[in-house]
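re the bet — no i am not wrong, look at it urself. input seq straight from the record:
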Amino acid sequence: MPIHPEQQYLDLLKFLVESGDERIDRTGVGTRAKFGHEMRFNLADGFPLFTTKKVYWKTAFKEMLWMLSGGDNIRQLLEQNVKIWTDWPLKRYRESSGQQISQSDFESRILSDDSFAAEWGKLGPVYGKQWRQWKTADGREIDQVQQVLDDLKSNPTSRRILWDGWNVAELDQMALPPCHKHYQFYVNQKDNTLSGAMVQRSADAFLGLSWNIINLALVTHLIAKQTGYKPGEIIWFGMDVHLYLNHLDQAKTQIARAPRPMPTLEIDPSVGSLFDYRIEHLNITGYQPHDAIAGDVAV
C-alpha cells in the first residue's frame, strides 16, 4: 500500500519532537530544530492540504493572493477578515505610543482611519512588495512575478524562472524578513507539466508549514493554468525547520492521527490573469480533516 504523502510531514514532526536540537530563539519561546529538510508532493495525487488537523485554507489562500498583488499593508488583509499579520504592527504601535490598545480596537482603527492605516498598517517592503516592485539602484521597479510568467511562455527551459524576496538592502525596513524567500519553476518538456519549488529559511513546523505547502501548491496551480501547463509537483526545501516548545503537545496529538484522502483544488477557468484571482475563484472539495489543533504564534 503506498505511503500517504502527508506522512512525510508527520515524520518531520516526530523527528523534531524526539530528536530536534533544542535552542533558544529570537522570540524567547524556544524550539526543537533541524537544519535542512525536503518534502515533495505530486499535484496529480491531490491537493496537499493536510488532513491530520483542520487547516483554514481560505485564510492561507487570501494571504498568498495578497502577496501576489504586491500588498504591504494589513488593511488589505483586514478587509478580508484576515488578522494573521496584525501582531507585528500592533507591537510596533504599542511600543511607540505607550498605549496598550487592544488588538480589536487597533484593527478597527486601521479599517476606519485612512491616515492611521497608512502610518501604522504598513509592514514595510515585505513579500509582495519585493515580488512585484523590487527597487533597483537606478530607481526602476522590477515585477519578478510577471517576468516568471513571461519566461514560462517564451523561454520555458530557462534556469532563471524564479523570484526572490530576500532583498538585503531593505531587510531592516520589513516587519518580518521573508521566511519563504525563494520560488523557482521548472517545465518538464516530456509531459508539459509545471513544477514549483520553494526555499524557506525559517519554518514554523506546527503552525505555519501547512500554510506554506498549500500556498506553494496554489501558486504553482495558478501559474500553470495561466501559462498553459499541467500542474506537476511541488518541492519544499526547509532550512531552519523548528517546532516551538509550546507546541510539543499539539504536535504529539497530530502525529497520532492517521491521514485522510487528499482533497481537490477547483479554479474558476474564466479568470484571465494571475493577478485577477480572488478567493471566490477558488474552492477545495473532498476535504474531511481531523479537528483543528490550536497553538499560539511566537512573535
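see?? The mean pLDDT is 96. told u. also The chain has two domains: 7-72+141-285, 73-122. so pay up
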